[in-house]
Amino acid sequence: MGEQYSEDRDNLQDLLHLYEQLKQGSGRGYLEEDSFERIILHFQDQEAFDQALEAAQWAVDRFPYSAMLKIKMADVLILLRRFREANSILDEAKLLDHRDINLYILKTEIFLALERPEEAVLVRDESLELFEGEERIELLFEMADVFDDYEEYERVFECIREVLIAEPTNEEALYKVCFWTDFTGRNEEGIRLHMEILEDHPYSELAWFNLGAAYQGLKLYEKAIDAYQYAIAIEEKFDYAYRNMGDALIRLRRYKEALEALERVTELTKPEDVIFEAMGFCYERLKQPAQARSHYRKAVHLRPEDSRLHYKIATTYHTEGQWERAIRQLDAAMKLFPSQPDYNRLAGECHTRLGQWQQAIDHLAIVVKARPKTAASWDALIQCLFAAGAHTEAEVQARHAWLATGEKPVFLFYQSAACFASGQTMNGLRLLEQAMEAAPKQLKRFMEVFPEALQHPALVDLLARFKRRRSF
Question: Can you spell out the DSSP letters for 250-306?
């Protein structure tokens, strides 16, 4: 093979030398059409497009009736973004040979580049009437690539669909159509297409798989699972069918069955982080935190820079009440994303459980800063401040929370409780009365953070008045 490459290279150098002599008017040799084609391709490969165009012009001047060389010249003009010139050259080529596939591919590209997609589609449809068999299949695949390059994704799907209509068992098309069905959301068409294929080719595992994927795209998970099971019955080592079936079973909350499918994936393919992560999720939902943690650890070994995996390990420790171990995992997650609110929220809760008030407050303050309009963020911080005995700060934060969350009454209760706890009885009564007017059922939130409330006679009188008022 090396000798062949060396011979081809030497031959190309001879052609380039002869081409230079011809340009200078000193050569006596003769270049054939295919020799000019090689020279043009060489300059294109070198991205020397001006030289490629010059060579193409020389070639067309010498072979004015060569459709192939005109098409090559149009190709170079397209690379130089001289689309209208390229289209004119292709019109000339079409008069000479209207059955060259490249002519239609390049015309399609020109119209797409000129933002005239309707004309591009007309070119495609015209060309499909001219070709049959392998030529038609090749043309459709090439057209699909062109439409893909110009982000005309619906047209890509149509081209691949046409391949399958002509050749239902074409493996390349079956692989590609699965992606494009999902990408374009044309799942209903995908279902019809593959059901038609399966009528005549019931043992096509790829068609069954694609049918399942299309059902899954419509969230018809039961039907998707049935289709995947047919695919697996035909090809028992079809790992992607097990993978998708696992996902569908998770969506249906059938976690034990999902684990069986995902376990089969691990047996058939090399270890993958996403599979271990999915298995960890299933075990977590089955309330088996140790097993969940084991699989999350396998995932993090393969994807160590994913902070979410450290967080998920932390949640399993949190479930078991292992606060310190949870914090170590959260520290690893927060080294990667220090201000991530979910990580800081859980870290705050773990430090609270350990009575490490300052660390807890610091983390929960980060959550509030990230989610200032979320009542739950403020709630966690304020409750932590009460638990730490920081009543003055709790009152300040409760006031901020009341304003930030659109004056939610719960934060009036917290302000009142903080005032009572810090000896500001009159302010506490005023705020409590305001809170009771707004949302009396939330009094329990007041009692949770300030259970000593019933030791204050003035507060007891206020609550009694509200009780009498409600009884009338």
Answer: HHTT-HHHHHHHHHHHHHHS---HHHHHHHHHHHHHTT-HHHHHHHHHHHHHH-TT-
